[in-house]
UniProtKB/TrEMBL annotation:
A single cellular component GO annotation: cytosol
PANTHER family listed in its UniProt record: UDP-N-ACETYLENOLPYRUVOYLGLUCOSAMINE REDUCTASE
Name of the gene: murB
Cofactor (UniProt): FAD
GO BP of this protein: cell division; cell wall organization; peptidoglycan biosynthetic process; regulation of cell shape
Transmembrane segments: none
GO molecular function term, any single one: FAD binding
UniProt keyword list: Cell cycle, Cell division, Cell shape, Cell wall biogenesis/degradation, Cytoplasm, FAD, Flavoprotein, NADP, Oxidoreductase, Peptidoglycan synthesis
Domain FAD-binding PCMH-type: 27-191
Protein name per UniProt: UDP-N-acetylenolpyruvoylglucosamine reductase
Native source species: Bullifex porci
Coiled-coil region: none
Keyword Cell cycle: yes
Its biological purpose: Cell wall formation.
Keyword tRNA-binding: no
């Protein structure tokens, strides 16, 4: 049972029974029992402390651009990173608080004549989420340019970690368990002229538009590619484009995307995704792993 909520609300502004559709880009999902929106490191620590003192399960919510919160909601305390903003540049290193959008970090890098992020242009979400999931595209990943991160450990201590061979894998990072990513630093390449970078960024965004990535609300790629194969190609070969369930639809333009119509539920999205996994396994004997994060009880 949570106690002393009113006192802590004054310190870290706790919201109760918060509707996750207010944060989700696909406007579906249940309610979060408690949620905070810290804007400083101290407020992050106080939020984690509150979850520990009251034996609440802790959830970290970034932009939710690849996270499905099920209709059952989240029974615990969620920390939203949406107010943790700020970008600094020193020489060839760009640093950003976890809640900064990846697109803003890329634009800031280009503005400062720093190259190395262009291939990630158009990927939605936050820099914290990009690090957590080792986001990547066009043969480039965050792990290729990662320099360091400031994280809060479960014991509330603050640690700075640096890149290492065992820190990342495909679409995943091996950060200390239950740690909170507070800031991320990337080491890029200094260039004299940023005009080619601007052009490359526009070209990568155009490629995403051409395959319909932004046509309808989605969480991006649902499944990881089972190397060396393409999840989208396997789904397409099963003839699943256009398959729908209660407003969730396998995209006609990108088979590894599930788009949602108005009033679609998170559970309907998951039901369709599980059906796709089942069909791919039936035909190819391959179990697709989820690239999206799934939170809550089904």
């Amino acid at each position: 049972m949570v106690s002393n909520v009113s006192i802590l609300e004054e310190k870290i502004n706790i919201h109760t029974n918060y509707d996750i559709t207010l944060l989700s880009p696909i406007k579906c999902g249940g309610k979060v029992k408690y949620i905070t929106f810290p804007s400083t490191l101290d407020e992050v620590i106080e939020s984690i402390k509150f979850s520990k003192q009251n034996d609440l399960k802790l959830f970290i919510l970034g932009g939710l651009t690849n996270t499905l919160v099920l209709d059952s909601g989240l029974d615990g305390l969620a920390i939203s990173t949406k107010n943790l903003k700020g970008i600094t540049v020193k020489d060839d290193v760009i640093s950003a608080k976890c809640g900064e959008s990846l697109s803003h970090v890329i634009q800031s890098a280009i503005n400062n004549n720093l190259s190395g992020l262009e291939q990630l242009s158009g990927i939605p979400g936050t820099i914290g989420g990009a690090l957590k999931g080792n986001a990547g595209s066009y043969n480039k990943a965050i792990s290729d340019i990662f320099y360091s991160a400031e994280i809060v450990l479960p014991d509330l201590s603050i640690k700075k970690i640096y890149n290492s061979d065992d820190l990342f894998s495909y679409r995943a990072s091996n950060l200390p368990k239950d740690s909170f990513i507070y800031s991320v630093s990337l080491r890029l390449n200094k260039v004299d002229d940023n005009k080619p970078l601007i052009k490359q960024r526009e070209e990568y965004i155009l490629k995403r538009k051409e395959v319909g990535q932004y046509d309808k609300p989605s969480l991006g790629c649902v499944f990881k590619n089972p190397t060396p194969l393409s999840a989208g190609l396997l789904i397409d070969k099963c003839g699943l484009k256009g398959l729908s369930y209660n407003g969730a639809v396998v995209s006609e333009s990108h088979a590894n995307f599930i788009t949602v119509e108005k009033n679609t539920t998170a559970n309907s999205y998951l039901t369709l995704a599980n059906k796709v996994r089942e069909e791919v396994f039936k035909r190819f004997g391959i179990t697709l792993d989820y690239e999206i994060n799934i939170m809550g009880q089904n």
